Amino acid sequence: MLLLQYAFIVVLCFLLVMIATTLIVSSFGSTLWVLKLTQLLSQLFIFIIPPIIFLIANRVDVTEQFGFKNRQPFKVWMVALLLLLIALPLVSWTEAVNAKMVLPEFCSSIEAWMRSNEDAANVLTKQFLTMDTPVQLLVNLFIMALVPAIGEEMTFRGCIQKMLVDRIKTPHIAIIVTSIIFSAVHLQFYGFLPRMILGIILGYTFYYTGTLFIPSLMHFCNNASVILLAYILGPDAVDETAGIAGYDSSLLWAAISLAGVVLVIILLSKKSVKRLPQQ
Fold first, then answer.
1. pTM, two decimal places
2. What would the pLDDT profile of 145-156 be if each residue is shown by its tens digit?
3. Residue 204: which of 269, 141, 270 has the closest Cα?
């Protein structure tokens, strides 16, 4: 029931922002700055406003829901950032595998549609990542790193994951299901696996630390690293999910990375204080 209620709020906000962005584009044209504005509005209305409305409507304490009072020691924050670094070879390898996936012949029209959407998204991303001044860099860090990190973590880890944990009673399944939804919502099939892996890592981080601050910081660092690389090296030198374009991790390094991720998650679960109750 709560999931349906949340979905209804998201759909309503989505329709409102679609109307607003359509009016803005029709009035001012589809210039890059207008597109960035519509991107910001979409993030606000789809990922930030719905969870706030949902929690207020159900009389839930926002600080309690997102674990803002769960203070973790500095070493836990460092372990979480270490987890993100260790996961890079695994994420890179899954991205390479994902990019080579081919659907069966009878799904060729679907594959062509997905490839077309992916190419269009890549073109727009490169336009966004073309930066010539520090001001453009700061704007991109705000729109493409900070706001998505806060909003997506509020929605997926702070609301959906917690509701699924309460309903399914099995946190591991809830985290994986949430990560699948998290990746699918981005509508980028050829980045589905690496984004799902990142979602799982963020999900376990939130579950064991009990605070949204830490996965939000990890999410921000992941997005910001791509933006900073694009600013330094140029948009053609980076990839949205894997960082430096052309970096192809081997299966061996991916396996070592996976083992490291598991060990660090276990370490995180032991070092964290005031963890979420084990459902």
1. 0.90
2. 999 999 999 999
3. 269
